[in-house]
Structure formats: structure tokens, C-alpha cells
Amino acid sequence: MTTLVLGATGYLGSHLAARLRRDGPVTGFARSEAGAQAVRALGAEPLVGSLDDEALMRRAFADHDSVVWAAQLMIPAEQAFVRRALGWLAGTGKTFVMTSGTGVLSERTDGDWSENTFAEADPFVPRKGLEGRVETENLVLGAHGLRGIVVRPPAIWGHGGTAILTEIHRSIQASGAACYLGRGLNCYSTVHVEDLAELYALALARAPAGALYHAVSGELPFRVLAEEIARHRGVPARSLDYGAAREVFGPSSTAIIFAASSRSRSPRARAELGWAPSPDRLDLLAECADPRYLAAAEKLGSWVSEGERG
């Protein structure tokens, strides 16, 4: 099976390309020669160009058995590309895997605990502003003449790539403390990036058309993560109200991450694909001490976009 990974130079996409090449040839899409070099380092063949180059994309889709969407675009642009992609694959019987996310399940709790947790088949009300992503999911799940699959990951961690931990480290630069919002009892469910990559491999090999999968290995409240980082850094942990959190984390990260709860379960992935996280990749607390998060936080500075403070 030949696979095209769109987004192969990103955090998730690079791990997908590295894992999927064990099952057959992998081509990784890149926008530049620097990206192409990164793809080659994964053992994959690079395809350099633009997603807007329809002729290039059509040829690439024709040359591969499966296409995995792991790129990051704004929701309208993502939906427009996926619509085109499904059209190129219609009637071929080939596979298209869309990466979504459990942000669509999230709810604002301002740091409070939520009992709500969702399996793949559970009904839910999409988070305001993310309705378009659910529409895109449904386009893939209902596609005809191909095998459309959706993977909806929770917060992904491992190898220094977890935005939540980077943000908490960065809050120390901004405030002198490892911060969380309110009581900090809210959380996103989590999965290690290598376990998630294994789920994609299983889905490509076994999933029926129209399948949607979660991939969950655990969950920890934001307060617990902040307190663990504070312990390693030798600083206090601190609760922030919503206004102060906007100043420290920025409006987007506050609303999407630190004010939200997104708890999920993955019974379909476990039962249908035989997926399970590795017992050696369950300790998110140990990840808090990885020095790569501090390095990433220092690179970003006290806040990435001063214009977002408004």
C-alpha cells in the first residue's frame, strides 16, 4: 500500500510518515526544500509544492492507494480542500483519512470539572465555531466510491511536542508561576503521538468505510500538570481568573484550551481495530520535565502575538 501524507512536516504528520513507512512506501507533502529534507530524514519520499496546485494534487492522489490528511488549515480552507480531495478520489475505492480533533466535543467550564465524556458514537453539540469541522467530518464519513475514515485525536503528547505543556512553561516566563485557570480541574483527554500513529496504521489496514475513531490513553487536570511543572522548575503554581489568563496565555489559548474540558473515550478503536496504548507511554507527568518544552517556551517568548491581547 502506498500512502500520501499531507502535513508530513508537522508534529503529528512526521510521526505518521515514520510509522506508516513500515507498511509500505510513503510520500510526504512539503511546501519547501527544507521541508523536503525533513521528509527524507523520516525515510519517506518528498513531494514539494502547494495544496492549491490542483494538477499536482490530482497526480499525487492517482499515484497512491491512500491519502492521510494531517495538515493544519483554517476550517473553511480545510473543508474546501477536503471537498476537492473527495472528488478526486470518488469512484476509485481508495482511502482518505481525515484528522479532526476532540476540540469539537469541548465545552467551556472555566477550570471546573465536567462529567461529560464522549465515545465515538455518542451524540454531542459541536463547540461554537467548530461546527464547520464536524461538517467536514461528515463529508468524509458519507463519501461514496472511496473509503472515508475520520480520526479525532485528543491532546497529543510526546517528544516535546505538546502545546499544553509548552504554554504552561511559557506562563512561568509571563508571570513567575506555572498557571492554570480557575480551579484547574478541567482537562483534555490525551494520547502519546506514537500510539496515535499506530491507530492510523491499524485504520488504514482494517477500518471500514465511514468509520470514526478516538484514541485515548488518559487524562490529567490542568492544575495537576501546572503543579508538576512548577515542582520541576522550582516556582509556585497559580490559579488565574479568566481575564488574567487572557493576559498570560492569550485569548485563543485561554478559550480553546485552558477554559475548556474535552474528555473522550475510544471503545470503537479498541474493539474494532484492536488498538491499545503502549503501557510504556502512559505517564504524561514524566513528560512535564522534558527540557524541550522549556526551550520551546523560550523560543516563543512571553506571548506569541501581542496583537491578540485586544
Automatic annotation (TrEMBL):
Residues 7-155 form the NAD(P)-binding domain. PANTHER family: NAD(P)-BINDING DOMAIN-CONTAINING PROTEIN-RELATED (PTHR48079:SF6), PROTEIN YEEZ (PTHR48079). It holds the Pfam family NAD_binding_10. It comes from Novosphingobium bradum. This is NAD-dependent epimerase/dehydratase family protein. SUPFAM superfamilies: NAD(P)-binding Rossmann-fold domains. InterPro entries: NAD(P)-bd_dom (IPR016040), NAD(P)-bd_dom_sf (IPR036291), NAD(P)-dependent_oxidoreduct (IPR051783).
